[in-house]
Amino acid sequence: SSIITPSLISKTDLTLKDVIGRGHYGVVLKSTWKHRDGIEIECAVKVLTQSPEKLVQEIVHMQKLSHENIVQLYGVCLEEPVLMVLELCDGGSLAARLKDHSKPTPLVTTLLKYAIQIAEGMRYLETQGYVHRDLAARNVLLTKDEQTAKIADFGLTRHLEPDQSLYEMSQNAQLPFSWCPPESLRYKKFSSQSDVWAFGVTIWEMFQYEKEDPWMNLSSRMVLEKIEAGERLSKPLYCPQEIYKIMLECWDFVPQARPNFTILTNKLKGFEFDVFDLDKK
Ligand code: ATP
């Protein structure tokens, strides 16, 4: 797929339509963007009502990213209020899809396909030196045909300098603590290895079909205590043993002992056939 360079978009080229989502900091509207030569492109427009700092962070990082499994930033509109024009992912969030009982339950093969796609997007981020810090099923969006999963929400993302492998959080911001490894909870240290831990929790959410939140009803302190005592989230009922084994590798106490996203992608791809057999039974 081609690399897209985000552009400066004029508000007059945008037609905002229905609200398709709400976040903590603003709303997302289904829209059309009148592109060059009068071509109309369907898109999602994010309007930020609060916390401009988070939006700026998100724009700064997203404008440099272009990958099949990352929600593409088409451009920004810098007149107030600032708008982000994004690739439309009409299938909604993966978390919402797993909870939606009006549609058929995704097969194990479909979940594996999404897991591979998320790992590919994360591998791209890892090789580009980005730490996402908020990977979770709620931040993975699906295309309308539900064939492709794309990583979204880069509001907490940080870029690491070439000689840097860790980001240390300074302010006391809110953490998605049930997705965080011990070094993030205890020392506020984030790295690609902490994203790997969150990836393990994300695939746990998927195979759990969002029936339960990870570490439900526990405080961040209680989660840390359990993890430090060696406890881990238990195997979801319909999760193949091989995939649970990968989750446990992602949840190694020692960050350097966890597989990176290249290893994870390759391991998951190796399962494709075995798990397909499992669905047929
Ligand atoms: P936060 O509140 O931390 O910013 P969030 O993901 O809830 O996180 P938004 O990124 O503003 O907030 O998105 C809100 C909702 O809008 C999402 O849950 C999703 O349903 C929808 N949404 C966001 N981006 C897109 C997109 N590109 N295409 C389709 N729907 C989207």
UniProtKB/TrEMBL annotation:
<feature type="domain" description="Protein kinase">
    <location>
        <begin position="14"/>
        <end position="271"/>
    </location>
</feature>
<feature type="binding site">
    <location>
        <position position="46"/>
    </location>
    <ligand>
        <name>ATP</name>
    </ligand>
</feature>
<dbReference type="GO" id="GO:0004715">
    <property type="term" value="F:non-membrane spanning protein tyrosine kinase activity"/>
</dbReference>
<keyword id="KW-0418">Kinase</keyword>
<protein>
    <recommendedName>
        <fullName>non-specific protein-tyrosine kinase</fullName>
        <ecNumber>2.7.10.2</ecNumber>
    </recommendedName>
</protein>
<keyword id="KW-0547">Nucleotide-binding</keyword>
<keyword id="KW-0067">ATP-binding</keyword>
<keyword id="KW-0829">Tyrosine-protein kinase</keyword>
<dbReference type="GO" id="GO:0005524">
    <property type="term" value="F:ATP binding"/>
</dbReference>
<keyword id="KW-0808">Transferase</keyword>
